[in-house]
Amino acid sequence: MRIRHSSIEDIPHLMAIYSHARAFMAAHANPNQWGPNHWPPQHVIEEDIQQTKSYVCLNEENHIVATFFYDFREEGDVEPTYQVIHDGHWLANAPYGVVHRIASNGTERGAASFCLEWALNQCGDLRIDTHYENIPMQRLLQKLGFTRCGTIFIHEGRDPRLAYEKILTDDESGTRFF
Description:
The chain has helices at residues 11-27, 42-50, 111-123, 135-143; strands spanning 2-5, 54-58, 64-73, 96-104, 125-131, 147-154, 158-167.
């Protein structure tokens, strides 16, 4: 598998992946995270592409099998919804990467893991959040070694999300990777 920036021509594939993800979430006791408002809308994906923050994961046959938003935040440039964390704390106060809107079409086992590992290797410190009902994503994050850090809120104090972070180390001693 490999990662590349998304292009406008990819939008039909991306919207199909998000449709599949909404159906998957609904079938796995998580109908509320993206389902009621058909999140994410196409205009958000178009903005992500224009800002070069949208990525796709391609399989060996060069087919798009997953997509995600990735951004790198410099020190002091904390994402608004990550400025306040409840019932815990972030692992570090340093530059970090963030992944949002990660989804796969379900055809390639390990695609989401590949995307998250790629993003982590870009920055060394990666944050992500997920809905309380998104048990498959919570399990994936735990499997990949992410630490649950607390709860953040989106949409002016509503919609709690579980916040996770992982920092690469260069050895078992816990030394920061970068």
